[in-house]
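Protocol step 4 of 6: record predicted structures for both targets in the notebook before any analysis. Target 1:
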Amino acid sequence: MSRKGIMSDKLKEEIAKELGVYDEVKKEGGWGNVSSKTCGNIVTKAIEIANRERK
């Protein structure tokens, strides 16, 4: 069974660029190169964006 992500790849990449980790994502290994702390920061940022758009 395939699991579809809630956050689009485009949004994740935009936030990764903003946080300065996009170069790591583009290397061999992709998101595996990004620390769990940074991934958490990406999720936090996405939640902030979603909350702003809801208002």
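Target 2:
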Amino acid sequence: MTHPLPSPDDLAEVAEVTAAIRHSIGSVLSGLDSAITSTLATVLAGGHLLMEDVPGVGKTTLARAFAASVDCSVGRIQFTPDLMPTDVTGVSVFRSDDHRFEFRPGPIFAQVVIADEINRASPKTQSALLEAMQERAVTVDGVTRRLPEPFLVVATQNPIDMEGTYPLPEAQRDRFMSRVSVGYPQPRDEMAMLDSHDGTDPLDEVRAVTDTATLTRLIDVARRIYAAPAVKQHIVDLVAQTRTETALRLGASPRASLQLLAAAKARAAMAGRNHVLPDDVKALAVAVLAHRLVPSTEARLAGRGTQEIVRAIVERTAVPTEARDAASPSMATVANGS
């Protein structure tokens, strides 16, 4: 089966819609261009996003601003130590009037799910998201129910050294396509925030600038971006090095390779290109790979984080000449999965 490459009109629509979403989020939060770009790339790649940073820097606000910018169903889950898996997935309730069980869906049955402070819940409750994030389905009482499309989990978490947090299991982290850090704002951006929040909540003014039908179409456009064999080989080389790196106890999975390619295609689409460049891979390698890795004891004692280790791997991994010189493919068709 073959898929046609995106047309110039397709790419123009990607640029127009993502610019509108970027402007909508920017009306609420200033100075988060990098975080917004990573968010949009993850959305177009059909992945899930993990935002990690200290409390109060705008993680949840960014997630809510994105959700408000898209005309879609939104489910918000405040993760707490006493949250149960059924509070996420839903529960079957017995109806005494007709003597049958009725399933009441949980907040996971939404197109955009905001999982706020996900690492404050127990690992048992965190695991309730595993099937949903991978299979786009939830099984309760032996019945599997499909989730709506598109389906996106935007989770926020505090650093694991904060009080009352549980580290996410490796299997859970691996299901997030990318992790971004919001960071503290620059003084001028914080000043703009004080002005915009003075007596009002700018989130109340956010209006949808696109809908799920358009978003689904743009996700399909991103999937049809061409990636040359040499670019794919570069991704394989990067991921393979995380598995042999002595500073890491756990390397990246094959899922990481697939998701790095998908994110790179989305970034290329946002840049108006119908093909992936090595720069797309390099720009997203830390966001896509670092949160999946586990540093060795020696690296942890030396204060080396996984982000630093991934940056070093990216810098020392040679880019194949064919990938560096990759040109736009013909506008005919490319093989499925290219």
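Step 5 preliminary note on target 2. The first helix runs from residue 8 to 26. Confidence is low (pLDDT under 50) at residues 331-338.
Proceed to step 6 after PI sign-off.
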